[in-house]
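pasting for ref
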Amino acid sequence: EVWREVGGAAVADWAAADGMASPPDFSEALPTLETGSFGKDYGERLSGYLLPPVTGDYRFWIAADDRGALYLSTDDSPDNKIVIAYTPQSTAAGGYEEHPEQITGPIHLEAGERYYFEVLYKQGDGKDNLSIAWQPPGEERQVVPGEFVEGVR
């Protein structure tokens, strides 16, 4: 979901302006947890459910220019979401290790369970990028594929 004409560069700027009180200007389903450009001065929210393919410990990363925050719930309820990673400063596209706050420690997930997630992203100046990566047990880091996400917006 994208809200246009939202000033500032921080997620807090968007929240302070009550940015999500109105319906989004644009909405679409995504093939991965990575988005394209919508110009300047907008806010974006991705939300849905992660569907882990195997049980085990996962790690997550976020890259965003200008700022982004990744929330994950302990179950399928949005009420239980917490921030697990965020970008304190702008990062390059795919720049997952520029700041320690962008990376989580191991998070145990169970195959067959649904975990609510949400990403809030704020773009200010037009050099935008947003992507969420994970590392499932025994695999390499990758942008989260859409086949393991339900209801992405």
